[in-house]
TrEMBL record:
Entry keyword Nucleotide-binding: yes
Any one GO biological process: nucleobase-containing small molecule interconversion
Family matches, as SUPFAM superfamilies: P-loop containing nucleoside triphosphate hydrolases (SSF52540)
Phylogenetic classification of the source organism: Eukaryota, Metazoa, Chordata, Craniata, Vertebrata
HAMAP family tied to this protein: Adenylate_kinase_Adk
Gene3D superfamilies: P-loop containing nucleotide triphosphate hydrolases
An annotated Gene Ontology molecular function: AMP kinase activity
Protein name as annotated: Cytidine/uridine monophosphate kinase 1
Length: 185
């Protein structure tokens, strides 16, 4: 299910001029890179359901953004998936990207914990991700509640959160996302 939504979402965000950057994907790719000085550290954090240090995540995001804009200056809008995840991430983003990037809005896919766990366990059957198991997922939920939800609340106070009921079907969620991009695009 998630892969279908991701493909459709990616296809459509390009229509609006956005480049998709997944913080998690960048971290997983870096973890697999045998030349990376951060690979083992990233693996440890991901497996424990913890948030990777901001300096690592920001450097990977900034590198991708810089490379994208160097290849095509018109590609200067980004959908950053999975970041910021805590106050440290937000402070790091603000410090590094102040005057370089503005957050237009935050897509918040709201879904109850059990549905999230079941969907990730299903994804885990084919994803090969080391964190797609119940123990890691439960730790990730606790990390989310303690660290990420307050960041979403902060953006909500700024009027920047666009909330989507992610417990619905893939098609219904996708339609909500398209409506938001049609309006905000």
């Amino acid at each position: 299910m998630g892969n279908i939504l991701n493909f459709s979402l990616l296809f459509n965000i390009q229509k609006y001029g956005y480049t998709h950057l997944s913080a998690g994907e960048l971290l997983r790719d870096e973890r697999k890179n045998p030349d990376s000085q951060y690979g083992e550290l990233i693996e440890k954090y991901i497996k424990e359901g913890k948030i990777v240090p901001v300096e690592i995540t920001i450097s990977l995001l900034k590198r991708e953004m810089d490379q994208t804009m160097a290849a095509n200056a018109q590609r200067n809008k980004f959908l950053i998936d999975g970041f910021p995840r805590n106050q440290d991430n937000l402070q790091g983003w603000n410090k590094t990207m102040d005057g370089k990037a503005d957050v237009s809005f935050v897509l918040f896919f709201d879904c109850n914990n059990e549905i999230c766990i079941e969907r990730c366990l299903e994804r885990g059957k084919s994803s090969g991700r080391s964190d797609d198991n119940r123990e890691s997922l439960e730790k990730r939920i606790q990390t989310y509640l303690q660290s990420t939800k307050p960041i979403i609340d902060l953006y909500e106070e700024m009027g920047k959160v666009k909330k989507i009921d992610a417990s619905k079907s893939v098609d219904e969620v996708f339609d909500e996302v398209v409506q938001i991009f049609d309006k905000e695009g």
